[in-house]
Amino acid sequence: MLAERRHQLILRALRSGGPAAVTDLSEQLGVSPATIRRDLVKLEEDGLLTRVHGGAVVEEGDQPFAEVAEVRVPEKDAIAAHAAAMIEDGQSVLLDIGTTAFRLARQLHGRRLTVITSNLVVYEELADDEGIELVLLGGMVRREYRSLVGFLTEDNLRQLHADWLFLGTSGVRPGGQVMDTTVVEVPVKRAMIKAGDKVVLLADAAKFPGTGMAKVCGPEDLDVLVTNAPVDPATRSSLEEAGVEVVVAGKVQT
């Protein structure tokens, strides 16, 4: 494997899963730990990551949508299938930005629904489905992450109501706080929470604790968490105390 390709894969792994050990990266890429260490030195010299004891981490920030969309697809599809089954025909659905919301949109074809979104990939997925009333929120385009943000998006949301909000996240803290890596998205997410009757958080196992420096909301703002793996005891306890229903891979933990 060429060094440039290894570097791309290393950065993708760190961005999607958080800090990683040299041994883990070595197994994932099928090369020696010594090779990984040399790669990490080069990437750190280029300012693309920070080496830590035993591994490396990348600074939090924007990730291109196309890059994030390629990771953990089966897990996201499992979550999306559970989420889609919660929706009844005739209801209104608010879909957040992010790749899991996009996977959910793919599950909604052929349904009689109203879908409201600031996610341009969701819009593109559903635009030709005549059974779905599609509402695209206005705003400023974040091209790399295919989303709409800003005061126009927030103003639009204040005029709307949805039966369901399906919310994405970059991380869930042990106290149940929902986090995001991108500050500009947080006001839009908060406006979505106010516009949704039922708030469902979609979070695969990598989101516990995941990443994120900006708090979107606390567990008291959630009604349901849909994930693909058992939630760690501390986070589960915080969610339960707030009355959140936790749906895990076909079963319910309450």
TrEMBL record:
Tell me which residues make up the HTH deoR-type domain.
3-58
Which keywords appear in this protein's UniProt record, sorted alphabetically? Answer: DNA-binding, Transcription, Transcription regulation
Q: Which InterPro entries match?
A: ArsR-like_HTH, Carb_Metab_HTH_regulators, DeoR-like_C, DeoR_HTH, NagB/RpiA_transferase-like, Tscrpt_reg_HTH_DeoR_CS, Tscrpt_reg_HTH_GntR, WH-like_DNA-bd_sf
PROSITE patterns according to UniProt:
HTH_DEOR_1 (PS00894), HTH_DEOR_2 (PS51000)
- Molecular function via GO: DNA binding; DNA-binding transcription factor activity
Under SUPFAM superfamilies, the record lists: NagB/RpiA/CoA transferase-like, Winged helix' DNA-binding domain
Q: Which residues cross the membrane?
A: none
Q: Does the keyword Protein biosynthesis apply?
A: no
Q: Give the protein's recorded name.
A: ArsR family transcriptional regulator
Species source reads Streptomyces curacoi
